[in-house]
Amino acid sequence: MKVMRETIVSTARELFRSRGYAGASMNDLADAVGLKKSSLYVRFPNKEALVPAVLDLTLQETFGQRDSASGQWDDEFVEVIEFVATTLTDRGRCVGLHLAYGTSDETPIAKHAVRAFFQAHRDHLSSILSRAMPVDVARDIATDTLARLEGATAFVAIFGEKDAMKRAVRLSIEEAKNAAAAKSLSSR
């Protein structure tokens, strides 16, 4: 049976999302995709080697299909954070955050991949926002937006409170629009 790399990576992502880094095993992954463990190790030498692939797939799904130069900054910002919020709400967990808590100095490849994952999110949001406000303000709002969305994910996962995510999105949009309006007023 030929198992595609994408199937392995997407299945690993779901295992990491549901069980965390420590709780997901290569044996579980091999079983889930219908491979012998030795065949899985040919493709990925260890569990840590899966982390960059899992997070790259997630980034590609989040930002890969979007044309960052098209349309208005605010429409694009709303589209991206609503996509992230919907994904987090539907899945009930953020794979990046789950991996952030599961990786350490003993797993430097995974730890670096998690850092790069969140940096890419912040950089992408900052690049959208900086079209309407100073770069330092854009970076702060991007950081705050990610913190709100990740925090709201906890309430979705623990209590099933989807309204927390809706508020996080609304507050982030308001903050961004207020910062853009303030810049516009100061430019006059």
Automatic annotation (TrEMBL):
<dbReference type="InterPro" id="IPR036271">
    <property type="entry name" value="Tet_transcr_reg_TetR-rel_C_sf"/>
</dbReference>
<dbReference type="Pfam" id="PF00440">
    <property type="entry name" value="TetR_N"/>
</dbReference>
<dbReference type="InterPro" id="IPR001647">
    <property type="entry name" value="HTH_TetR"/>
</dbReference>
<feature type="domain" description="HTH tetR-type">
    <location>
        <begin position="2"/>
        <end position="62"/>
    </location>
</feature>
<keyword id="KW-0804">Transcription</keyword>
<protein>
    <submittedName>
        <fullName>TetR family transcriptional regulator protein</fullName>
    </submittedName>
</protein>
<keyword id="KW-0614">Plasmid</keyword>
<dbReference type="InterPro" id="IPR009057">
    <property type="entry name" value="Homeodomain-like_sf"/>
</dbReference>
<keyword id="KW-0238">DNA-binding</keyword>
<feature type="DNA-binding region" description="H-T-H motif">
    <location>
        <begin position="25"/>
        <end position="44"/>
    </location>
</feature>
<keyword id="KW-0805">Transcription regulation</keyword>
<dbReference type="GO" id="GO:0003677">
    <property type="term" value="F:DNA binding"/>
</dbReference>
